[in-house]
Design brief:
Layout (H helix, E strand, L loop, with lengths): L4 H9 L4 E10 L9 E4 L5 E3 L7 H14 L3 E5 L16 E9 L7 H10 L3 E8 L7 E4 L4 E3 L4 H17 L3 E5 L10 E8 L4 E5 L3 H12 L3 E6 L15 E4 L2 H6 L8 E4 L4 H11 L6 E4 L3 H13 L4 H4 L2 E2 L11 H17 L22
Parallel strand pairs: 11-12, 11-14, 12-13, 14-15, 15-16
Antiparallel strand pairs: 1-2, 1-5, 2-3, 4-5, 6-7, 6-10, 7-8, 9-10
Helix pairs in contact: 1-3, 5-10
Length: 370
């Protein structure tokens, strides 16, 4: 959804109605997680994807139908063993979609939500999926305000509280309520879609490898910052557009930078005077991934210095060093792919093994898939 919002915001601002299909639930090996979206706008223009191509044709027709009727619909697609020509997912999973019409009248806050997402302001959109409430009705919730309604004041109050809780976690999921927000009932199904700010990727050491890692980090959706104490290397022209470049001592910059459980830290300085105090700081703060470049010998010497500096074994166990997966990488771009692969595998619990040697679902459900 985040990627297609700019196009949707333009349609909305121009008063053009469009059909929006959003994945609200998945099971087994689904190709896209909750929150994936596809929209059909003017002149049959399509943006986004909900399945990677398996059911997009059927979703296109549904989107046109809801725009014509003005009524939201719920649709489920799975795999059919009995009918080879049936619309479904070839991966064997199942996805449930909410397909709703979006117009300035039906969703006046859509443009405001899109603007918040564009500027990094956190917001959660709650949408009625099923039950005795207006299907497709939306409620936009920010940390300090809310707008819209799901059809009942009690339901709005309960959903607003839950939306703020999920926003803090950056989660998107289904919740169930009674018609007036009763917690122990499940008549009304609501999809909470959180748009938290992009996670940070902090790359230390403005070397050739850093440019490649920054490029792939930006591609994966991270807000990337490259930091180096040497101004001759830390120049914006050496890095992709949109990547922040900071001239500062790495450990000092990190000490003054907020991190969280989604933050990725890549230490490419390859110099003890930089990376030891930097890692000492990094290993004692929240982060999803902390990796450091270097040979096996460099790694052992680094561990010794960190231990001498008072870093505990528990803290050292968080360090991915040498960073990256064993792909046989040689060039900076190949090494960046190796690092990105390790970050993705760690995030989703992947083994890093070739899929030909594994069994089970290729896209297993994960609670934080959104």
């Amino acid at each position: 959804m985040r990627e297609i919002l700019p196009a949707l915001a333009r349609w909305h601002a121009a008063g053009i109605p469009f059909g929006l299909a959003t994945v609200v639930a998945v099971s087994r090996s689904a190709p896209r997680g909750p929150g994936a979206a596809m929209a059909v706008g003017p002149d049959d223009e399509v943006v986004g994807s909900v399945s990677g191509g398996c059911v997009e044709g059927a979703v296109f027709e549904l989107a046109e139908e809801v725009v014509a009727s003005g009524e939201a619909r719920l649709a489920t697609f799975g795999y059919s063993d009995e009918d080879a020509f049936a619309v479904g997912l070839t991966c064997g999973g199942e996805i449930t979609l909410l397909v709703r019409p979006v117009t300035p009248e039906s969703d006046p806050a859509f443009g405001t939500v899109a603007a918040s997402v564009a500027t990094g302001e956190p917001v959660t959109v709650a949408t009625v999926v099923d039950g005795p409430a207006p299907r497709g009705a939306t409620l936009a919730v920010w940390p300090d305000r809310a707008t819209g309604t799901l059809g009942a004041s009690g339901l709005d109050v309960a959903v607003t509280a839950d939306a703020r809780g999920e926003l803090a976690l950056g989660a998107s999921l289904l919740r169930h309520y009674g018609p007036h927000g009763e917690r122990r009932e499940d008549d009304v199904t609501v999809f909470l879609q959180s748009f938290a700010p992009r996670p940070r990727m902090l790359v230390f050491g403005a070397i050739d490898y850093a440019a490649a890692v920054a490029r792939i980090g930006d591609f994966l959706g991270y807000r990337v910052t490259v930091c180096d104490a040497r101004p001759v290397f830390a120049t914006p022209k050496r890095f992709p557009a949109g990547v922040e470049v900071v001239v500062d001592w790495p450990h000092r910059y990190l000490a003054g930078t907020q991190t969280d459980d989604r933050t990725v830290v890549c230490v490419l300085t390859h110099d003890p005077k930089f990376d030891v105090p930097l890692l000492e700081e990094a290993l004692r703060r929240p982060a999803a991934y902390i990796g450091a470049m270097g040979s096996r010998r460099t790694h052992e010497e680094r561990r010794e210095r960190l231990t001498e500096a008072g870093v505990t074994e528990a803290e050292l166990s968080r360090l991915r060093s040498p960073l990256g997966l064993d792909l046989g990488a040689r060039t900076p771009e190949e090494v960046a792919v190796s690092v990105a692969a390790e970050i993705v595998a760690l995030r989703w619990g992947g083994s890093g093994a070739p899929l030909t040697t594994t069994a089970g679902a290729i896209h297993p459900f994960h609670p934080s898939a959104a």
